[in-house]
Design a protein that fits this description.
The protein is of the alpha/beta class and about 400 residues long. The protein has eleven helices and 20 strands. The chain folds into three domains: about 5-70, PUA domain (Archaeosine Trna-guanine Transglycosylase, Chain: A, domain 4), CATH 2.30.130; about 75-195, RNA methyltransferase domain (HRMD) like (Transcription Regulator spoIIAA, 2-Layer Sandwich), CATH 3.30.750; about 215-405, Vaccinia Virus protein VP39 (Rossmann fold), CATH 3.40.50. It has helices spanning about 10-15, 75-90, 135-150, 165-175, 220-230, 245-250, 265-275, 280-285, 295-300, 325-340, 360-370, and strands at about 5-10, 20-25, 30, 40-45, 50-55, 60-70, 100-105, 115-120, 125-130, 160-165, 185, 195, 200-205, 235, 255-260, 285-290, 305-310, 340-350, 375-380, 400-405. The protein has a seven-stranded mixed β-sheet, with helices on both faces. The chain has a six-stranded mixed β-sheet with strand order 2-6-5-4-1-3. Strands 7-8-9-10-11 form a five-stranded mixed β-sheet. A hairpin with a 2-residue loop joins strand 8 (about 115-120) and strand 9 (about 125-130). Helix 2 crosses helix 3.
Length: about 400
């Protein structure tokens, strides 16, 4: 089969040269033949010279995900191995034995577009967001085992689990007989994985849980909350499985309240707390659960007050058309949270909506604080954790702001 060749618009050429990793379908002017998912497409510039190479996906609006820009190169096993080693090297000094759960590959920002690799001790979770990776799974899982095996300090790979984005699950099943939660390598798994994060123990449902089973990206904010929690009563809204609460408890919080609409999430938080009862501060901290919609509970409850409130909702804007409504929702949520703060209370507000920029989010929270007519001090703003680098605009989703009233 002849090499798949693409010619693109001038605007797309400038975007690729500047380092943007996505080539959209409407940017393609010419294509020499029908392409197959996962094959390498060669992109030529207006002078008919090599510009870039990318993974092709004929069924996605992102038609090609750029792997390499510049001079022609062979994208073979050695090339992939080198790229894996680079991603591992970036994280080599980030974690010690107290942390066995973190991200090893963060998609486009690590040169692996549409793919993430998370570590949970000896279990690795490979999540793919494009069908372009599906015909390459055996090749990639083998490279991962070999690459990590060459570095003894990284620990052994007991198993590799495949997780699939919802938009490709049907295609994966029909065409490649792959399923979400499939074990690509290693023994079966019938219970949650337990891993360590800065000395705390957490469980993760790596087969069926959200994302790859846990939210590693909030690790640094959890640490900050732990440092602020001593002697405080804490409300963790949208608590999921209680990560912020557990850090607050270890940090000396008097009490923590997990607020979530999901019974399953609250049960997970309860089990995580029990995993860490051996820590005196955690054992001493009083934990309660509130099963309710966080927006509704904060709006309707008029009596309870807290010294530290964390607002970490799921994405409120999954597409650009929802951006303005999401900004308004963040402002309402911040206002409701502030109303439940004791004097000298701290509000920690977070957003994981990529369609809402950092400044839009920060301004919404600051605006709510100003309208409260309470004096406040902005302590800091935060972004991505070091194992979740963001090298282009669309990858910049996580932001947090800390206000003391």
């Amino acid at each position: 089969m002849t090499r798949l060749k693409l010619r693109i618009t001038a605007a797309a050429e400038r975007s690729v040269r500047s380092g943007h990793p996505w080539l959209f379908s409407e940017s393609i002017l010419e294509q020499n033949r029908e392409g197959q998912p996962g094959e390498i497409a060669i992109v030529y510039d207006k002078k008919d010279k090599f510009l870039a190479a990318g993974l092709f996906d004929p069924d996605s609006p992102i038609r090609a995900r750029i792997l390499h820009v510049g001079r022609p190169t062979n994208i073979d096993d050695a090339w992939w191995s080198s790229r894996l080693e680079s991603a591992i090297a970036r994280r080599r000094s980030l974690f010690d034995d107290q942390t066995t759960g973190f991200r090893w590959i963060n998609g486009e920002s690590d040169g692996w577009p549409g793919l993430v690799l998370d570590r949970y001790g000896g279990t690795l979770v490979l999540k793919v967001y494009t069908a372009a990776w599906l015909p390459r799974l055996q090749e990639i899982s083998g490279l991962i085992r070999e690459g990590i095996g060459r570095a003894p300090k990284l620990g052994s790979v007991e198993r590799i689990i495949l997780r699939l984005s919802r938009n490709i699950q049907s295609t994966a099943s029909r065409r490649w007989h792959r399923s979400d939660g499939e074990i690509l390598h290693g023994p079966p798994l019938d219970e949650p994985i337990v891993f360590s994060e800065t000395g705390l123990q957490f469980e993760a449902d790596v087969l069926r849980g959200q994302k790859t089973g846990f939210f590693f990206d909030q690790r640094e904010n959890r640490r900050k909350v732990g440092a602020l929690a001593k002697g405080r009563s804490v409300l963790n809204a949208f608590s999921f499985t209680g990560g912020f609460s557990l850090y607050a408890a270890r940090g000396g919080a008097v009490s923590v309240a997990d607020l979530d609409i999901s019974t399953h999430a609250l049960e997970g938080g309860r089990r995580n707390f029990e995993l860490n009862r051996c820590i005196p501060e955690v054992n001493k901290c009083r934990r309660t659960e509130i099963k309710a919609d966080a927006f509704e509970w904060l709006k309707s409850n008029e009596t309870e007050r807290f010294d530290l409130i964390i607002l970490d909702p799921p994405s409120l804007a999954k597409r650009e058309s929802e951006r303005n409504r999401a900004i308004q929702a963040y402002a309402r949520l911040a206002s409701a949270g502030i109303a439940h703060l004791e004097p000298d209370g701290i509000l920690v507000a977070c957003s994981c909506s990529a369609h809402v920029s950092s400044e839009e989010f920060f301004d919404a929270v600051r605006g709510a604080a100003s309208k409260s007519r309470r004096k406040f001090h902005e302590m800091e703003t935060t972004g991505h954790a070091p194992d979740h680098p963001a090298t282009f605009k669309e990858a910049e989703y996580l932001k947090g702001i800390y206000l003391r009233f």
